[in-house]
Design a protein that fits this description.
By secondary structure, this protein is α/β, with parallel strands linked by helices. It is built from ten helices and seven strands.
């Protein structure tokens, strides 16, 4: 068996585990068989696509991989404010987090090859070796020592002039395209942004808004009724829309995700830095939604 085939098998098994979690099921041989019966074919296809994506990332970088991936799952994608991405020097992209393919949409419009990504400790990503070179894996909230290690690793990367993408909320937020109260979580964005600004000279934090990554039809699908909380229902909506498209081999939901690279926060001479970041996020969201109606 080749290394790529081995990685695909490991990716497949890890994906079945994550799907079991998405449905709030205890991972047992019985629950695994159930998930495999329902999603096995889509999961195998996902593993193949993931290995192909990882190959593209290895040759051309994460942005190239994102641009290769998206036409298979969206009708189109667009961005405004690309000129706000610093050409050089340390910077952090701080976006909202509607989940689904939000990271990929943002990455497709990034102009920096040195961008790294803080992502959850999701096992199937660890079987994409080229992609992993750009990932900083964050452990669960209760692993304080592990999360501090993530902060230290991120600071080192920024101090060397690199870029970083971090979802400051750390959990799934509403998709502004059609969900109400898309700004409800801005007040809870992580203090890590404040730490980065204090520890990294000349750091710029680029407030970013992404929308249109979840299909309204997917949110209405009965599969989402397995969970009650809106973030959990969004995860299941993504599972449904991705599975449908993987099995069909084409995009089906006519998604047109959009990204706004908005205001930049820099310096430490703020009376309340997190409040300034929150206000900047709200202003960027307003501009983003004005674009949708223009």
């Amino acid at each position: 068996m080749t290394q790529a085939a081995s990685n695909a098998d490991l990716f497949y098994e890890a994906l079945l585990f994550e799907l079991t979690k998405a449905f709030a099921l205890k991972y047992t041989s019985r629950s695994r068989r159930l998930i495999e019966f329902i999603f096995g074919k889509a999961a195998r296809t996902a593993a193949t696509v993931a290995m192909d994506l990882d190959h593209v990332v290895g040759k051309g970088g994460h942005a190239e991989g994102a641009r290769w991936f998206l036409p298979r799952f969206v009708k189109s994608h667009s961005a405004r404010g690309i000129g706000n991405i610093p050409a050089s020097g340390p910077f952090v992209i701080a976006p909202n987090h509607p989940g689904s393919i939000d990271t990929i949409v943002i990455t497709a419009h990034s102009t920096r090859r040195d961008l790294k990504f803080i992502i959850g400790d999701i096992q199937f990503f660890k079987h994409m070796p080229h992609s992993c070179e750009g990932f900083i894996f964050a452990p669960p909230q209760n692993d304080t020592a592990g999360r501090m290690q993530v902060v230290r690793e991120s600071i080192r990367h920024l101090q060397h002039g690199g870029g970083l993408l971090i979802f400051p909320r750390g959990s799934i937020e509403a998709d502004p395209e059609f969900m109400p109260n898309a700004d409800a979580e801005f007040h809870y964005w992580s203090r890590s942004l404040e730490i980065f600004l204090k520890r990294v000279p000349n750091l710029q934090i680029l407030i970013t808004i992404v929308s249109g990554v979840i299909a309204p039809a997917a949110m209405r699908h009965p599969i989402t009724r397995f969970r009650k909380a809106r973030p959990d229902r969004q995860r299941l909506a993504f599972v449904y829309q991705l599975s449908r498209q993987l099995l069909s081999g084409k995009q089906l939901f006519d998604l047109t995700p959009r990204v706004t690279f908005g205001e930049t926060i820099q310096g430490t001479n703020h009376d309340d830095l997190l409040a300034d970041i929150e206000h900047a996020a709200r202003r960027t969201l307003v501009k983003h939604m004005e674009w949708a109606t223009s």
